[in-house]
Automatic annotation (TrEMBL):
Annotated source species: marine sediment metagenome
Organism lineage string: unclassified sequences, metagenomes, ecological metagenomes
Protein name: Terminase large subunit gp17-like C-terminal domain-containing protein
Length: 227
């Protein structure tokens, strides 16, 4: 299922599956932004799938967390204890509004079984993807452009025999996190109730440009309506 609009008032979460090495044949680092609406639908809003060094990984995570004002961050414990932790905490302490990381520790259940656990929510139409062509990124490793949703579709259709399942695996992290909540219903007199991906992304950028030009604005009431 694909969504055409993003409901206002969603809670946003950043889910990270880091790769342990930055080699041509190694797994990709995957970061997925999930929005949860008041009906407990999970919308895939943004994401990256790339081969990153530790600093790039942390810088990208910080950027996504700030852009979407996430309520929580789930980060698989692989490669997190050393350089990732140092870089992330060093940057997070200097910034406001970024939640602490909730580590996703190794489970007795295999990755394949975790991904299979997504099936009921997919069957019930609770997972909604962005349309193809919306989440297009340029790889820091290869320099080539890629479509995040096309990569997700390849994993989905080839599972469990495909070479990669990292994007799907990040989706399993929601059930392993302690602080994940659906959005509160908006009051009926709040208009408009929905925004497209392009509108919400443009409005986030507009607010940031406004605050950069008007430093005192952050103490005013100018805020993106998706809150």
């Amino acid at each position: 299922h694909y969504y055409s609009e993003i409901p206002l008032g969603c809670n946003y979460y950043l889910l990270i599956d880091p790769a342990s090495a930055r080699k041509k044949k190694s797994d990709y680092t995957v970061m997925t932004i999930i929005a949860i609406d008041s009906d407990n639908n999970r919308l895939i809003i943004d994401g990256i799938r790339d081969k990153l060094d530790p600093k790039q990984r942390v810088d990208t995570a910080i950027s996504l967390a700030q852009r979407w004002e996430v309520k929580g961050i789930g980060w698989e414990a692989i490669a997190f204890q050393s350089t990732d932790l140092f870089y992330f905490e060093e940057k997070r302490r200097k910034l406001k509004g970024i939640p602490t990381v909730e580590e996703i520790k190794s489970q007795k259940v295999s990755k394949e079984d975790r991904v299979r656990g997504l099936l009921p929510s997919y069957v019930n139409g609770k997972w909604l993807w962005a349309p193809k062509g919306v989440i297009v990124k340029q790889s820091k490793f290869s320099g080539k452009s890629y479509d995040f949703i096309e990569d997700l579709e390849k994993e989905f259709l080839s599972f469990p025999l495909g070479a990669h399942d990292d994007i799907l695996d990040t989706q399993t992290f929601l059930s392993l996190m302690k602080s994940v909540y659906r959005a509160k219903p908006l009051s009926e007199n709040k208009e408009p109730t929905e925004m497209t991906y392009g509108e919400i992304s443009s409005q986030v950028d507009e607010e940031k440009r406004f605050v950069r030009k008007n430093p005192w604005a952050k103490f005013d009431t100018f805020r993106v309506s998706r809150r």
